Amino acid sequence: MSVPTPSLTVRNVRLPPAAYRALNLDTDATAPLVDLDYIAANDAVEVHLTPHDASVEQRFDPAQPFASTIRIDAADDARRGVAREAAERRLVGRFPSPTSTPAAAPRCIDARGSLGIPGGLCHPHIHLDKCFLLDRCTLSDGTFSEALTATASAKAEFTHDDLVARGRRLIAASLSHGVTSMRAFVEVDPTVGLRCVEAGIALQAEFADRCHVQLVAFAQDPLFYPDAAKQQRMHQLLRHAAQSRQVDVVGSAPYVESSPEGDAVQQKTQQRRNIDFVFKLAEEFGKHVDFHLDYDLDPPGAAAEGREAMLPYVLGLSRGRSWDVRGQTRRVTIGHCTKLSVYTEGDIAALCEGVAEGVSVVALPPSDMYMQGRDQPYASRSRATLPLLELHKTLRLSWAMGVNNVANLFTPQGDADPLAMLPCMVGVWQSAKPRDCETLLNAVSTSARYAAGFTCSYDDAAVWADLTLLDGASGVQDAVCAPPFGRLTIAKGSMVAQRTIHSTLF
Fold this sequence. Notes:
By secondary structure, the protein is an alpha/beta fold. It has two domains: 8-119 and 466-499, no CATH class; 121-461, Metal-dependent hydrolases (TIM Barrel), CATH 3.20.20.140. Helices cover 29% and strands 21% of the residues. It has helices spanning 17-23, 144-155, 160-177, 195-206, 228-243, 264-285, 311-320, 345-352, 365-371, 388-394, 421-428, 434-443, 446-451, 476-481, and strands at 8-13, 34-41, 44-51, 71-72, 90-96, 108-110, 115-118, 121-127, 179-187, 212-219, 247-252, 288-293, 324-325, 328-329, 332-336, 359-363, 398-401, 467-470, 487-491, 494-499. The chain has an eight-stranded parallel beta sheet with strand order 8-9-10-11-12-15-16-17. A six-stranded mixed beta sheet has the order 4-6-1-2-3-5, with no helix packed on it. Helix 3 crosses helix 4. The model has no long low-confidence stretch (mean pLDDT 92). One of its GO terms (molecular function) is hydrolase activity, acting on carbon-nitrogen (but not peptide) bonds, in cyclic amidines. InterPro entries: Metal_Hydrolase, Metallo-hydrolase_Enzymes.
């Protein structure tokens, strides 16, 4: 019994270890090659997987040391074995047919042993409206306070067209890197009103068939002011944004709350009010929750002194409150949490007692390491970002990693490539063990998707709609320790981006 001719075949691809485990495929010592066929079936697309015993040798050519290895075959006769017997095939994925297909979409891709990431890479935390502002802001001392002040001034000049143009640049670059989904923060406050949300909605629609852009209505500014009129305006704007069907998440940065008297205890009270407000708003409108939290390197201390961390408070609320968001249980996601890098073993043990379901913590190393610890001597300076590999083994939460910002005063370095973070973090967290490399790759793929509220398990049929091929990387350690520049991105069963390298020595 044969099956219909695929609309796209990806041959000779390797998968992450977790994918083989989820599918109960025998891996022995090496990851076996598989073929993936994307086949139209009524109003859906099915993904069929076929393992085989063939091998592909990736030869190193000293005259072309970084040249791309993936090949696109346009001719139908290059698609060997697409009508295999049903007994040799396995249905692993199914998703709704896209509304459009790229005009020049290829029909056969030979990955030649390259690693493929089902579900693609994911930004679990990225600011869509504050990207590419570096040339508009004066960078003097590089502090967080300067970044907040300068960016607030730049926000006053935001227009819809400007927001869309910069956001389009960010999403297009992300697609080229292999990102097929993102949780994108768009700010809401009396300065920008709903302009950032409206631009985000426009970009969400523009890239709907290529990248899932999930929007967070985000309050970077305080939610509580001495000025009652300003406070009322802020709450009205955030409520208006939360009601939008295109917005799936509401979030805030509780640490920006202050006390008129500068009292530390009162400031913590204000932070808890901020957190309560966001939880209530999210529950009322059926949204996920996302906080920027504990963004400092001060060890947690006594509540009577106003030195307690806010993470336990959020975990406590998460344990007691759950609701539905588009058919799934709400997720609570926490970004930064740099304070975790100075927790003692006792602090971690106490935190373990308060773990809640559906909570993710997202490390943001590019911003964390750039911003934090500036007042400490270099020789004793903290690594300034949460110890993801260690906490992944000791604290039962979901751990992910994101780039946070692109080309602004919070994060001047980097270009939105999630994989570009990984070699640095191998050094920071001092491990390239195979299982730790798998954790790091998951942090920008499956775990990142979980943190953003997307389907994430390899045994979930919807995950296989997207696939990111890492050109020339034959395994997880390759991908983490030396990510290839070449990428090929498949979204909803169609190739939507390809980045190739021509490398020649003379």
